[in-house]
């Protein structure tokens, strides 16, 4: 697991060049993604996803190495967990990545026991920049990819 400090939190329009893939925080769009247990079937816009992280959400991403079983297990977890959302992220290094504001865990599969611990620790966890902020539908912008 890696942690990152000193992340900016300015609302911006346009794209942001993030240092991590997927990003763990930083400047972001003023509109957040629906993170009420939402499972997206296409990549989402980083800048909107980062805003959801600021609200205390956990973002679950996966690439083409994830098995159908991984995707089903992660989807089932996200769908029953407020302040979480999931999307494919084809360019990420790890098979499965769990991201909260300033924290990221890269895994080989959804069966790793650290998945549950990450959710328990980071959904509305101590890293949350805006505790209690809405995770309801703010926007649903998808990438053009």
UniProtKB/TrEMBL annotation:
Residues 126-145 are annotated as: Disordered. Pfam families: DUF3105. This is DUF3105 domain-containing protein. It comes from Kitasatospora terrestris.
